[in-house]
Amino acid sequence: MSSYIALIHKDADSDYGVSFPDLPGCVTAGTDLDDARAMAAEALALHLAGMAEEGEAIPEPSSLETVMADPENRDGVAILVQAPARARKIVRVNITLAEDELAAIDAKAEAAGMTRSGFLARAARALEAA
């Protein structure tokens, strides 16, 4: 199994944002560092599964030196995130919601730096754990 470097960023009055320099568009956030690490693992798994499903080439992970050589990455804290041995199957679904409910979901997801799908999956896991 390979590991990808994720960068954790924290601005005042925000959650901990996580991005993957090797995987543009693979971003997430967490309310604290532990949550950010957990969300990073989930985001990586979902992103890689989506790439595989679309037939996209999955890049080899860059070294820490290569990632940190980019000046744009130097303000983040680097962590290693293990790529899953086998990605979970992603299933596309069609749901029906009231327009205002969908707008509220999208606003919360955007504020958390997440996709709609990632936000709904996280909410389902939170309810399951409660």
From TrEMBL:
- Domain of life, per lineage: Bacteria
Q: Which Pfam families match?
A: HicB_lk_antitox
UniProt cross-references to SUPFAM superfamilies, sorted A to Z: TTHA1013/TTHA0281-like
Q: Which residues form the HicB-like antitoxin of toxin-antitoxin system domain?
A: 4-124
What is the recorded name of this protein? Putative RNase H-like HicB family nuclease
Q: Which organism is it from?
A: Aureimonas pseudogalii
